[in-house]
DEAD/DEAH box helicase
Amino acid sequence: MFPKPFKKLHPNILEKLESLEITTPTPVQSSSIPVIKSGSNLFCTAPKESGKTTTLILTTLQKLKCEAVGDAPRAIVLVENKEKALELYDQFLAYTKYNSLRVYVAYEKMHIDLQKSEILEGLDILISTPKNMNKLFLLNGVNTAELKIFSIDDAEFLSQQSDYAALLSITQSIKKCQYVLYSEKLAPKLKRFENYFMEYSKIISI
């Protein structure tokens, strides 16, 4: 029997957790999963290896009810670079193997027109870097009408001005969605997002 907050997750997710022998949530998962499920914007800070990325994956799957719908992305995840994007893509695939969710990864080295056409073919979860995502947004390559959740993994890299500016540009084009930012510490520069797109956000620190 799964303890809270795992207990209330989609049966498809529970099945996967069982096969991975993950039965007990980490402190960061216990604190953050209910808040993310409630729909609040959230700054989630915790040390390395505390389960933040798994939290990101579980809550994204939960939000999308583990099934493909339509063509436009319903979840966007930003990461620092191509390596992180591909790593996260593989981690997502481990969880989406037996459901219909479509995960797509886009990064700088890929031709932007190829990315646009592949994205238009339909996907549910889009993983990319801020600069690449901003380029796609400027070329109208991403339809955000169905977007439900926007997560940023290991957000420390946003201290770089170019990534910071790209993120602000992206979020200006999004009408309404939930934002969740994961980092080890809540640096003042990250907290400043409250004034832009992280309104009424909650903070969880482990």
User: Anything to note?
Assistant: The first strand starts at residue 42 and ends at 45. The chain has a mean pLDDT of 91. Helices lie at 11-19, 27-38, 52-63, 82-96, 112-120, 130-138, 161-172, 188-191. The CA atoms of residues 87 and 134 lie 21 Å apart.
